[in-house]
Specification:
Rossmann fold; single chain; globular; binds phosphoric acid mono(formamide)ester
């Protein structure tokens, strides 16, 4: 994953709020840095002192399995101290605002706040209010930048490059922060992106982001190199966009039968958690084309890279 633009740069951003705000070169630097950390995660002793003496807080206002565990592991593998704040058992329940929570966390001399929030833009508000670095771990329908970065890292590891690839993002585009971050990231790296969903789940004007739009799954699958299948977000009233789950599966579910009509080596991704039998069958989720668990593994190296870069913002990184 050698990349000349990534060989010597000055990483200047204290926060990672979304891929909308990054240049192609900055995205490539994260992927390049993640490649070095991936090697660390395969060693017998999977730990480096890169963030020794730094403290990372995980502040999750929404449930998470993969992202939270992976940020914690990433921070620990960089030798940082880690605190997980249980929002349900915190002073947020007494009405404390996000900004007050952030400032109080900062008063504890925290270096990086990793935040997931149901409100789009919450990490941006927090980043303006504290000097600590803020990393967006998913905000409302806005962005989930580290998910898209690990998706791109996995795709690049599998197929060698992103530029020129045809990638179809399938499912609940309207409510998906994963879709938005993937669109920003993949188009900046010059992939050809198609989004496919039932008409009610396609946000108006999405084509302005530089993607092709279709509601025809066969069209989205034809000649595509990779698919990123999104979770139906039933907690966000998605079911109102489709009569029943069974009908959704029949029209948009990825099955072995459908994959047989695709490129033989098509890469199947899903950010998780999967609704088996709704977005895809178990045959596909656990099949030979699926890289779903590799995505999860790669999330550690990608998040190590992000934590490392924001913690060393404004210093020259020599690769
Ligand atoms: N992909 C993802 O964000 O999963 P979690 O909600 O489990 O973190």
């Amino acid at each position: 994953m050698k990349n000349n633009t990534a060989d010597k740069i000055v990483w200047a951003k204290k926060d990672l709020l979304g891929l909308e705000y990054l240049s192609r070169e900055e995205i490539e630097v994260i992927l390049y840095t993640a490649q070095s950390f991936k090697e660390v995660t395969t060693r017998q002793i999977k730990k480096v002192p890169a963030l020794r003496g730094k403290t990372v807080v995980n502040l999750f206002y929404e449930p998470s399995t993969r992202t939270r565990a992976s940020f914690e592991l990433a921070a620990k593998r960089l030798s940082a101290d880690v605190i997980n704040i249980e929002v349900e058992a915190s002073s947020v329940k007494k009405g404390e605002t996000l900004i007050d929570t952030g400032r109080n966390i900062e008063a504890l001399k925290i270096d990086i706040i990793v935040v997931r929030h149901n409100c789009s833009g919450a990490p941006n508000i927090l980043a303006r209010s504290v000097k600590s670095s803020v990393v967006n771990a998913g905000d409302g329908w806005h962005e989930h930048p580290t998910q898209a970065l690990l998706d791109m890292f996995t795709l690049k590891s599998k197929l060698g490059h992103i530029e020129g690839l045809r990638v179809s993002i399938i499912g609940d585009i309207a409510h998906s922060r994963v879709a938005r971050s993937n669109i920003w990231g993949m188009t900046k790296l010059v992939a050809e992106v198609t989004v496919c969903a039932p008409p009610m789940l396609i946000p108006e004007g999405i084509e302005k982001m530089g993607v092709k739009v279709t509601s025809d799954l066969d069209e989205a699958l034809k000649n595509t190199d990779a698919i990123n299948v999104l979770r139906m977000q039933f907690e966000r009233d998605t079911q109102k966009a489709f009569p029943t789950k069974l009908e959704y599966f029949k029209q948009y579910g990825i099955t072995d039968q459908r994959l047989k009509k695709c490129k033989k080596d098509i890469v199947v991704m899903h950010p998780g958690p999967i609704n088996r039998g709704i977005e895809m069958s178990s045959d596909v989720a656990d099949g030979a084309n699926s890289v779903i668990l590799e995505q999860v593994t790669n999330g550690i190296a990608v998040r190590m890279a992000v934590l490392y870069l924001v913690a060393h913002a404004k210093r020259e990184i020599v690769a």
